[in-house]
Design brief:
heterotrimer; A mainly alpha (about 220); B mainly alpha (about 120); C mainly alpha (about 220); B: about 120 residues; mainly alpha; elongated; C: about 220 residues; 6 helices; about 80% helix
């Protein structure tokens, strides 16, 4: 099972590295998202209080949705998804492989976004780097877990571009809320680490629930 | 999937799109209600939030009314409940009669053998 | 339609006609006064909203893993009822809150997670309508995630500091309020069963129609 997941991941990474199309476009979109928010919310040269945390997570959510759509669009165009599903591989392993690919892409985007947001909004995002990494990684896993499942399901559906946000955003609201609250807490001058720990624990619990549900339903959902 | 089943599904989708215009009406009513309430939301004040209740305490006399009259809110709430339930029943009835008419039409067509 | 439907509908109509009188006979609440009477319809609607979400989730799971079209019809009907009862809850709640809390809306856990659950139910209907082929399984997957939200909505108010009253309010209600509440709750529960049966019936008629179109092709 792990070998299959690793193979799927390697295949995705190899294809991606050749052109870096999704990586560049997603990154650019995320950066322009942040800039949009900066222009919209900055008043008299100052950004709103606690704006940085929310804007960071919104940019991650929007960029993630785009990346999810693009990744599976690529599968659909080359009919590789059907090939993958016909292969004698564990279906859940395919899901895990795809999930890891999306997580890698989003983490790469976050590595660029965090310094950018910190710079534009004068937010001390890098003051507790390990906690910020914990928050970002657990939040990304939760978001990507649901996103990978839904965009895989939507590959053959009509109106798939619009339906992905429609399906994804309501379900990932708890992830976003927890992520923003935790990040906002980390930006405070006197951070209350127990509160951050609570939000990270909630994020990890959500990750477990979402990944378990996704693994359980991936097989019946992809059979048609 | 058999070709005929695929066609039936496509027909069904086409049919479904027409039959759901009734549902559009109900959806639009709900959306309008949300839109109308937005300016009211904008007038929020934020007083000190009261302590979270964990039990209701009964009294038998109404206390003197202070800031906001409660009756309009109460009446609106109950009126909305009745309207929503009634509107849903009407929507169901319409959709049902439409489908049943279509079923009857098809059954009589099949009986007449005019489509084979 | 089954034999019990019309008699039960008649009984339910009488219950709803009697409900306002029973509600009016209950005592007022000390701090909230008249507006608290919204409670007697708000709480049952909220309960029916959660029940609909659970019914939809269970039927979706059975459909995904068993493939029975009857479960799919049930899930679709339950999702529609979740939107209906959720809408009632999310309108009566703010109307009560405007007087009781001073604001129309607060972003506390209970309200936010309820709104989120409601949006998931909406999303289910949108997917069924516009998703094209395979949308039944898609929506079923979504419904499972929506059902996972339900226990969270219920307990959220006990474990977080929220402005919404805790669940301990209901068991500690005095007798007259309790009677009014449970009578309304029973009315809503019967209504839920009736509406569910009716909506499933609509879905069954649609299936019959599809089968007829199918037989025409042959």
């Amino acid at each position: 099972m792990i070998r299959t997941a690793w193979l799927v991941l390697k295949k995705d990474l190899t294809v991606e590295v050749r052109s870096l199309e999704i990586a560049y476009t997603t990154l650019f979109f995320a950066v322009s998202c942040v800039l949009f928010f900066a222009f919209a919310l900055v008043k008299e040269g100052k950004a709103p209080e606690d704006g940085a945390a929310g804007i960071l997570w919104i940019a991650i959510a929007f960029a993630g949705t785009l990346a999810l759509g693009r990744t599976f669009e690529r599968e659909r165009q080359s009919e590789t998804l059907r090939a993958l599903l016909m292969a004698p591989a564990d279906r859940p392993a395919i899901y895990v492989g795809k999930l890891l690919g999306i997580i890698a892409l989003l983490i790469a985007a976050e590595i660029v976004l965090v310094p950018l947001v910190a710079f534009l909004f004068q937010a001390p995002l890098l003051s507790h780097p390990f906690w910020l990494a914990a928050v970002l990684i657990s939040g990304t896993i939760g978001f990507a877990a649901v996103g990978t499942l839904f965009s895989a399901m939507l590959v053959r559906a009509r109106s798939r571009d619009v339906l992905l946000p429609v399906l994804l955003y309501p379900i990932t609201v708890p992830v976003i809320i927890a992520g923003v609250r935790a990040t906002a807490e980390l930006l405070q001058p006197d951070v209350e680490l127990s509160l951050v720990r609570f939000w990270v624990a909630l994020l990890l619990a959500l990750d477990v629930v979402f990944v378990t549900l996704a693994l359980w339903t991936f097989e019946p959902l992809m059979t048609d | 999937m058999q070709p005929s089943l695929r066609r039936a599904t496509r027909l069904r989708q086409g049919f479904g799109a027409h039959a759901s215009t009734r549902r559009h009406g109900a959806l639009i009513c709900f959306l309008l209600l949300l839109v109308v309430s937005t300016p009211l939301v904008a007038q929020q004040q934020q007083p000190e939030p009261p302590k979270q209740t964990d039990e209701f305490v009964p009294i038998s006399q109404l206390p003197p009314q202070d800031q906001l009259p409660a009756a309009p809110l109460l009446v609106t709430a109950y009126a909305f409940v009745w309207l929503a339930l009634f509107g849903y029943l009407v929507s169901l009835a319409r959709r049902l009669s439409k489908v049943q008419r279509e079923v009857e039409r098809l059954e009589s067509d099949i009986a007449k053998g005019s489509r084979t | 339609m089954p034999k019990w439907f019309m008699p039960l509908a008649g009984i339910n109509a009488v219950m709803f006609a009697a409900a306002p009188f029973i509600i009016a006979s209950a005592n007022y609440e000390a701090t909230m006064g008249l507006v608290q009477k919204i409670f007697y319809f708000h709480m049952p609607s909220a309960s029916m909203f959660l029940v609909s979400a659970v019914v939809c989730g269970i039927a979706s799971a059975r459909y995904l893993f068993g493939g029975s079209p009857r479960q799919d019809r049930l899930a679709y009907a339950a999702a529609e009822l979740a939107v209906l009862f959720g809408a009632i809850t999310l309108v009566t709640g703010p109307l009560w809150a405007r007087k009781a809390w001073g604001v129309w809306w607060a972003w506390d856990v209970r309200l936010t997670s309820s709104l989120m659950g409601w949006m998931v139910a909406w999303a289910y209907l949108l997917v069924r309508k516009y998703g094209g082929p395979g949308s039944d399984k898609l929506a079923a997957g979504l419904a499972l995630f929506g059902m996972a939200n339900v226990p969270f909505v219920y307990i959220s108010v006990n474990y977080w500091r929220t402005i919404h009253p805790k669940t301990s309010v209901v068991p500690t209600l005095p007798a007259d309020m309790g009677m009014a509440l449970w009578f309304s709750f029973a009315s809503f529960l019967v209504l839920f069963v009736l509406l569910l049966r009716l909506r499933v019936y609509l879905e069954e008629e649609r299936t019959k129609l599809d089968a007829l179109y199918l037989s025409l092709d042959e």
